[in-house]
């Protein structure tokens, strides 16, 4: 056969393969549908007609459950849960759990779904009991281990959460250092609230042992030193952020300034800011530096610094402060610049300062654990308030 003929026949072969596969697929679908009990269609009809309780009654009365009908039950239950109809999800999954005919594996799946329902309903103790039952049967049930860790996290049972995170790490063969470090930070904060600073420092040591780049542990340790009046130690600790977790630098500059002021070394703060600004151009750092220059060295120095920065890396908040300084210096509140400044103030009012890199959640307050997706260390200060980017 000539090469050109082979090329001509290739599409024909592909089309016939697709046709046979399609026929087989249609046959399988129609066979599966034919095997479903008639009551299933009645149940589905009730769902389509917005009568979910009647549908649940029918599904629960069905005695025979195979893998495909079980999947339909699960899908329906999680649909109810996602829609916030947790009571219905619980009824459906409880009905599944009670079926004696289920295999061990399917029973475990139904139990897990029921635990998720209880979690969604805020019944953490019930969810915990079911997860413990699942882990008792299979110590490597990753879904149950994760849910249990989440429950302990919500209950602020940090030592238990750490144990679970370690088990998950073994199960997944993947370290959970970031998570465990945050749990130790939570323990440190609990100890600090009870004024047990020695215990707080022990917990922070463990956090840094788990994750050497844990910016949160570095910040808490510095805050404790500052609280004790050990300003040199506090300054040293705050400055570690520059290398370990520079994305949080803007969070500590105010406290660092207070420490330098306490030891009468404000010129060192200015020198520090001028040095870090070369490597960290986040708009927050630039604004803090400009405000400090304004306070320590006067408006002219602050204006020159800020106009250079804004010129090189345009940012709306930079322009906003530049206008504020310029208007203050000009002592003119009636000109066009004042109108521009006032409009900019309104545009930037309540604009988010932080964003979660996982789910996109934005806000004006810093959270170490995202309130939306519950990921740790995913919320960072928005550093790029630049034209066409964040605004
Ligand atoms: Zn998030």
Describe the structure in your own words.
It is elongated and about 85 Å long. The protein has 391 residues and is mainly α. It contains 19 helices and three strands. The protein folds into four domains: 20-167, Tetratricopeptide repeat domain (Serine Threonine Protein Phosphatase 5, Tetratricopeptide repeat, Alpha Horseshoe), CATH 1.25.40; 175-228; 263-349; 350-391. Helices cover 72% and strands 2% of the residues. Strands 2-1-3 form a three-stranded antiparallel β-sheet, with no helix packed on it. The structure holds zinc ion (ZN). Zinc ion is lined by residues 356, 358-359, 361, 370, 372-373, 375, 378.
Short structural description:
It contains 19 helices and three strands. Helices cover 72% and strands 2% of the residues. The radius of gyration is 30 Å and the shape is elongated.
* Ligands bound to this protein structure: zinc ion
Question: How do the strands of the widest beta sheet line up side by side?
Answer: 2-1-3
Order of helices and strands: HHHHHHHHHHHHHHHHHHHEEE
How much helical structure, as a percent, in the residues?
Answer: over 70%
Architecture of the largest domain, CATH level 2?
Answer: Alpha Horseshoe
CATH superfamily of the largest domain: Tetratricopeptide repeat domain
Which ranges are low-confidence, i.e. pLDDT below 50, for 5 or more consecutive residues?
A: 385-391
Number of domains: 4
Q: Give the helix/strand class.
A: mainly alpha
Shape designation: elongated
Distance between the termini: 64 Å
Provide the β-strand percentage band.
under 5%
Mean pLDDT: 84
CATH top level of the largest domain is Mainly Alpha
Work out the helix count.
19
How is the biggest beta sheet arranged?
3 strands, antiparallel
CATH topology of the largest domain: Serine Threonine Protein Phosphatase 5, Tetratricopeptide repeat
Query: What Rg do the Cα atoms give?
Result: 30 Å
What's the quaternary structure here?
A: single chain
Strands, count: 3
């Amino acid at each position: 056969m000539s090469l050109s003929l082979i090329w001509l026949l290739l599409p024909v072969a592909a089309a016939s393969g697709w046709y046979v596969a399609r026929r087989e697929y249609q046959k399988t679908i129609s066979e599966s549908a034919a095997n479903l009990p008639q009551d299933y269609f009645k149940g589905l009809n009730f769902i389509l007609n917005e009568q979910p309780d009647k549908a649940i009654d029918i599904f629960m009365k069905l005695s025979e459950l195979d893998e495909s009908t079980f999947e339909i039950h699960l899908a329906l239950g999680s649909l109810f849960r996602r829609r916030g109809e947790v009571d219905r999800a619980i009824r459906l999954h409880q009905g599944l759990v009670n079926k004696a005919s289920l295999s061990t594996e399917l029973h475990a799946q139904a139990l897990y779904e029921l635990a998720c329902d209880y979690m969604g309903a805020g019944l953490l103790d019930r969810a915990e009991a079911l997860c413990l039952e699942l882990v008792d049967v299979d110590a490597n049930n990753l879904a149950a281990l994760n849910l249990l860790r989440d429950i302990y996290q919500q209950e602020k049972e940090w030592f238990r959460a750490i144990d679970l995170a370690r088990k998950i790490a073994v199960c997944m063969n993947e370290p959970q250092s970031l998570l465990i470090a945050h749990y130790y930070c939570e323990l440190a904060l609990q100890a600090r609230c009870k004024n047990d600073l020695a215990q707080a420092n022990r917990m922070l040591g463990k956090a840094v042992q788990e994750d050497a780049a844990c910016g949160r542990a570095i910040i808490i340790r510095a805050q404790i030193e500052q609280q004790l009046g050990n300003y040199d130690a506090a300054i040293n600790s705050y400055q570690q952020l520059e290398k370990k977790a520079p994305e949080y630098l803007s969070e500590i500059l105010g406290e660092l300034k207070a420490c330098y002021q306490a030891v009468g070394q404000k010129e060192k703060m200015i020198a520090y800011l001028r040095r870090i600004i070369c490597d960290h151009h986040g708009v927050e750092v630039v604004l803090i530096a400009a405000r400090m220059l304004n306070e320590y060295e006067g408006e002219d120095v602050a204006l020159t610094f800020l106009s250079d920065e804004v010129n090189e890396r345009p940012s709306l908040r930079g322009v906003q402060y530049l206008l504020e300084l310029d208007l203050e210096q000009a002592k003119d509140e009636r000109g066009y610049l004042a109108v521009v400044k006032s409009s900019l103030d309104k545009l930037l009012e309540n604009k988010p300062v932080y964003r979660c890199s996982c789910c996109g959640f934005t806000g004006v307050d810093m959270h170490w654990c995202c309130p939306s997706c519950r990921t740790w260390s995913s919320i960072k200060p928005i550093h790029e308030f630049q034209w066409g980017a964040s605004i």
